[in-house]
Design goal:
Keywords: Glycosidase, Hydrolase, Signal. By secondary structure, the protein is α/β, with parallel strands linked by helices. It is built from eleven helices and ten strands.
Length: about 350
């Protein structure tokens, strides 16, 4: 009987240990898997319905989505889902939201509160606003008003308010990464945003594209841009950089330090590689596959040389080619999937 009790206790303990192990592994899988998302743009006349797109996110186990505006079809499809949502305030709404708390409240009511079972994580108040353009002065006040609306509903700890900038705000040259600084003429735009983010413990969102850096300076080794360099390429004091993505990201961290906010977090709100539309040598399906696959693997496993203990949260641009995007032809060839929902190339998010 004593032996049976020991066996029973051991069996019970083993079961508990197995259960604990499963829960730990599930937590680890969820944590690592949740570092990567995909941007869902809708500037195309041949894209599948939003409901089918959200089903694709589930099918491919993509756990984060960036919406550039309150796409009602997508928000409806996201009800009850665990997918984390980065939701954009449209650039054209910045002026009226910045000047009216009531309009900010109304926007939050219509696009957030009315979707109480959607897993919102970020609200992005404007995307790549020109720091010296006519909308620049609206961004920080609009962020403040959206934040007040979120706070009044006791959602400030769950939903973080920010804005998305491009790396064009960095001064030239910003090399090596430790020399990173913001352009002086952009500081009147950036300083109130940075102060807001620090005050509300929100991250800065950065659209970060090694492709454009490489394209503007073909002396850079393409392996360095594609995460395939076999050894470090850039040495910055004690830090060694084996890929351009980390170098650019740490340049922004250095710029934040010089702006007095070195503890501020960064989320990479866009990154990707075009599969066509450029010179045909660099803008290929194979290079897009290599970059995006390596980006996903890198984000899962690593911080940066400057922030080795920090996780990187990043969003791949984009779910589909968007045939109605304005600008050069290259702007219409960033998709992971064709409008038919077929993958452009194999990519594993897990």
């Amino acid at each position: 009987m004593g032996k049976a009790n020991i066996l029973a206790k051991n069996s019970s303990m083993l079961s508990k240990m197995l259960l604990f192990g499963i829960l730990v592994m599930a937590h680890i899988a969820a944590t690592t898997g949740s570092k990567i998302g995909v941007c869902y743009g809708t500037l195309g006349n041949d894209l599948p319905p939003a409901q089918e797109v959200i089903s694709m996110f589930d099918q491919y186990r993509i756990q984060k989505i960036r919406l550039y505006d309150p796409n009602q079809g997508a928000l409806q499809a996201l009800r009850g889902s665990n997918i984390e949502v980065m939701l954009g305030v449209e650039n054209e709404r910045l002026q009226d939201i910045s000047s009216s708390q009531d309009k900010a409240n109304s926007w939050v009511q219509s696009n957030v509160l009315n979707y109480g079972n959607v897993n919102f994580k970020y609200i992005v108040v404007g995307n790549e606003i020109d720091p010296t353009g006519p909308q620049a002065s609206f961004v920080a006040p609009a962020m403040e008003n959206i934040q007040k609306a979120i706070t009044s509903e006791n959602l400030a700890s769950k939903i973080k308010v920010s804005t998305a900038i491009s790396t064009a705000v960095l001064k030239e040259p910003s090399y090596p990464p430790s020399n990173g600084a913001f352009r002086i003429d952009h500081l009147p735009f950036l300083n109130p945003i940075i102060a807001f983010l620090a005050r509300n413990q929100s991250p800065l969102l950065v659209n970060l594209y090694p492709y454009f850096t490489y394209d503007q300076n073909r002396q850079i080794n393409i392996e360095y841009a594609l995460f395939t360099s076999p050894s470090p390429v850039v040495h910055d004091g004690q830090l060694a950089y084996q890929n351009l993505f980390d170098a650019i990201l740490d340049t922004v961290y250095s710029a934040l330090e010089r702006a007095g906010s070195g503890s501020l977090g960064i989320v990479v709100s866009e990154s990707g590689w075009p599969s066509s539309g450029g010179d045909g040598e660099v803008t290929t399906i194979e290079n897009a596959r290599i970059y995006n696959s390596n980006l996903i693997n890198h984000v899962k496993a690593n911080g940066t040389p400057k922030k080795p203990g920090s996780t990187i949260e990043a969003y791949v641009f984009a779910m589909f080619n968007e045939n109605q995007k304005k600008g050069p032809e290259i702007e219409r060839h960033w998709g992971l999937f064709y409008p038919t929902k077929q993958p452009k190339y194999h990519i594993d998010f897990n």
